[in-house]
Amino acid sequence: MAQLMPKEYNLTITKIPVLRILWAVFAICAASLAVAADGAPIPNFWDPQHRIDRPETSSIRVIRFVTEDDYPPFGFVLPDGSLSGFNVDLARALCEELRVQCTVQARRWDTIFETIEQSRADAAVASIAMTPANRARVDFTAPYYKTPARFVARAAVALPDTSPEALAGKTVGVVARSAHEAYLRAFFPRVTLRAYDNALALRSALKRNEVEIAFGDGVAFALWLNGTDASGCCAFRGGPYTESRYFGEGVGIALRRDNQVMKRALDYALKRVAERGIYADLYLKYFPVGFY
After folding, report:
1. Distance from C-alpha of 103 to C-alpha of 36, rounded to nearest angstrom
2. Other Cβ atoms closer than 10 A to 201
3. Phi-psi sector, 119: left (phi>0), alpha (psi -120 to 50), beta
C-alpha cells in the first residue's frame, strides 16, 4: 500500500513566533475550498488568477501512466479485472484534456520509481508524497491533493469549535510519535494527549468512547467514517489543518526529472480539469465523506 505521508516523525520542536502560531492554527487551510451544490467543501490547489497557456503537446502521442491497484479508493481492480479509482480516473481525465492517448497500468509500489527512471512509463499517479527523498529521484507536477490533519469527535460530543481555547483541558487521542502529536504539542499545549501505537488503535479507542476526540490523518479518517466499521459513531470537527512543516507538501504526479514537456502538459491539464469541475466530480465520487 502506498503511503501518502511518512507515518512517524521525530521532530525537535523549537519556539515559534506568535504570529506563526496564529497563522498555523487559524489559517487552517493552505488550499482554497470550493463548495459543492450540497455544501460539501472541495479542495482547490490551483490559483484561478494564474493563467496557464496551453503548452505545445505535438510531441506527446501517448502518456503511459503507472499506478498501484491495492489502495482503494485511489486505485483498485474491478471484478472484470479493469483498473479504477480516483488516481486512475484522474489520469484518464488528464489525457482527455490533452487529447492524447492514455494507458494506465498497475505496478508494485516498490517498483514505481524504477519504472519511471528507466523510461518504461512516463508518469506515476499513485498518491506519491512530494518529500525531499522522493524529489531526489523524480520530478513532480503541482500537487493534486494534500493530506490534511483533522479532528474527529464522538457524534454526541458538543464541540462548537476546535480552537486551542475550546479544547483546553480536553483529552485528545493521537498516534504516538506522529506529526499529528508534534503539531498538537506545538499549537494546542493545553490539551491532554493520550497516545496510541497506531491509527487502528486510535480509531478503536474513539469508537469505544475511551477518548471523545481524536486528531490524525484526514484521508484515513474520511475512509473510516464512510465505512461500516465506524458505525456512525463519529464526525469531523474543525479543520482542515495543512501546515506543510508537519503534514507535507502534498501529493503530485511523478515523472522523470528531464521530462519538462510532459510536466508542463500535466500541470496545464490538472488546472483545466479543476476549472471544468471534473476534479470536483471525481472527489465527490470517491470520497462521499470528504477529507476537507
Report:
1. 30
2. 15
3. left
Number of Cβ within a 10 Å radius of residue 118: 10
Q: Hey, where are the domains in the chain?
A: 56-146+249-286, 149-241
Beta strands in 101-245 (DSSP E): 101-106, 123-129, 139-140, 149-154, 171-175, 192-196, 213-217, 234-241
Element at 90 (helix H, strand E): helix 86-98
User: Is the pLDDT score of 233 beyond 50?
Assistant: yes
Question: Tell me, which fold does domain 149-241 have in CATH?
Answer: D-Maltodextrin-Binding Protein; domain 2 (3.40.190)
> What are the grid coordinates assigned to 60, written together?
506527446
- DSSP class of residue 85? S
Cell of residue 156, nine digits: 454526541
At 42 the pLDDT is 84
Share of the chain above pLDDT 70, in %: 86
CA angle, 16 as apex, 10 and 20 as ends, to 5°? 115
Please state the φ and ψ torsions of residue 200, each to the nearest 5 degrees.
-65, -45
Helix H or strand E encompassing 76: strand 75-77
pLDDT at 49: 76
Query: Do the domains 56-146+249-286 and 149-241 sit in the same CATH topology, yes or no?
Result: yes
Residue 12 above 60 pLDDT? no
Indicate the pLDDT class of residue 45, thresholds 50, 70 and 90. Answer: confident
CA atoms within 13 A on the CB side of 242: 20
Stretch 117-138: mean pLDDT: 97
What predicted TM-score, i.e. pTM, was given to this entire model?
0.85
* Fold designation for 56-146+249-286: D-Maltodextrin-Binding Protein; domain 2 (3.40.190)
